[in-house]
Amino acid sequence: MREHTGIALAIAGAVVTFMTMLAAVLVVLLWTALTIYAIVKAIGSAPDSASATTVLLIVVGLVTALTLTLAGAITLVGRSMTPRRRRR
């Protein structure tokens, strides 16, 4: 059996689980962010209609943040797989 097979399988399982849950998490976070945006829009003196650019940036920001969270977790776990250098 290879040395880091267990860690590699754990990373693969985490990625599959994360991608499966991503749709549901994204819907909840998007609903929350747009609700906050609507409340701020209603309180402020901005124009009545919502900005399509702002909504697009909210979606892009959420997807980017979730993807970077996954990449950061994989990086932290993957560091344990790299062999340490030995002194000669």
Element pattern in H and E: HH
Query: What share of residues is helical?
Result: over 70%
Number of helices: 2
Number of strands: 0
- Rounded to the nearest angstrom, the distance between the terminal CA atoms is 28 Å
- Our Rg estimate from Cα atoms comes to 20 Å
What is the overall silhouette? elongated
Number of domains: 1
Query: What is the beta-strand fraction?
Result: under 5%
Q: Spans of 5+ residues with little confidence (pLDDT < 50)?
A: none
Major sheet: none
Mean pLDDT: 85
Structural class of the helix and strand makeup?
mainly alpha
Short description:
By secondary structure, the chain is an all-alpha fold.
Helix-strand blueprint:
Layout (H helix, E strand, L loop, with lengths): L4 H39 L8 H27 L10
Helix pairs in contact: 1-2
Structural summary, described in words:
This protein has two helices and no strands. Helix 1 runs antiparallel to helix 2. The chain has 88 residues and is mostly helical. The radius of gyration is 20 Å and the shape is elongated. It has one domain.
